[in-house]
Design a protein that fits this description.
Layout: E1 2-6, E2 9-11, E3 18-19, E4 26-27, E5 33-35, H1 37-51, E6 57-64, H2 68-78, E7 82-87, H3 94-108, E8 112-116, H4 127-135, E9 138-149, E10 152-159, E11 162-169, E12 172-176, H5 188-194, E13 199-203, H6 235-244
Parallel strand pairs: 1-6, 1-8, 6-7, 7-13, 8-12, 9-12
Antiparallel strand pairs: 2-5, 3-4, 9-10, 10-11
Helix pairs in contact: 2-5, 3-4
Length: 249
Amino acid sequence: MKILVAVKRVLDYNLKARVKSDGSGVDLANQKLSMNPFDEIACEEAVRLREAGVASEVIVVSCGPAACQETLRSAMAIGADRAVLVETDAALEPLAVAKLMQHVAQKEGVQFAIFGKQAIDDDAGQAGQMFGALMGWAQASFASKVQISGDTATITREIDGGLETLAMKLPAVITTDLRLNEPRFITLPNIMKAKKKPLEVVKAAELGIDITPRTVTLHVSEPAARKAGIKVVDTAELVKRLKEEAKVI
């Protein structure tokens, strides 16, 4: 069984995003970009499934500029077997990513796909579900435990009321929750091995897939600075201020 893992290159989670001076978007110039944390979890889970003998190959796929090759190499250092970059400089929305992933999945003949539940740059949380719909596969989001036996996947997922367990026939797609696993530390020998693993580059423009954005960003601005708190002398003053100044939302 082949497993596809979707990987996205985002602003490193340790850094604070800066808005461009013209308000057109987030300024990524001279900023550290790394693998989306939820995608690291997805890659780790796929590698564990291969190590357990459930899967035969793990293929990591990213959609974006040529610089995404560095992120794919990091995924292969975790343990993925090979990588595919669908190269494009266009701004990609979740539907466009899902379409490009669909193309790769059908070409490679994968039976299982793992997406991070969301990317920390836009927090959309849509690509995995859209991919499942396009492929016509069973799907489970926010997975915290994965078990595969034969052609059946048993997924434990987190919901508002606690935990839900689903059994589904393969092929299927899941999105990962934080509690699914803890990604392994990437060692220097594995980084060196990753440099020798195959990485295929496919031009998105040559696939004939419509990846035109459906939305337009009008303006991006930083959140308003938090106002300083007010100290009160006693409870009576607190109650008075709450009556007179507090706003009902």
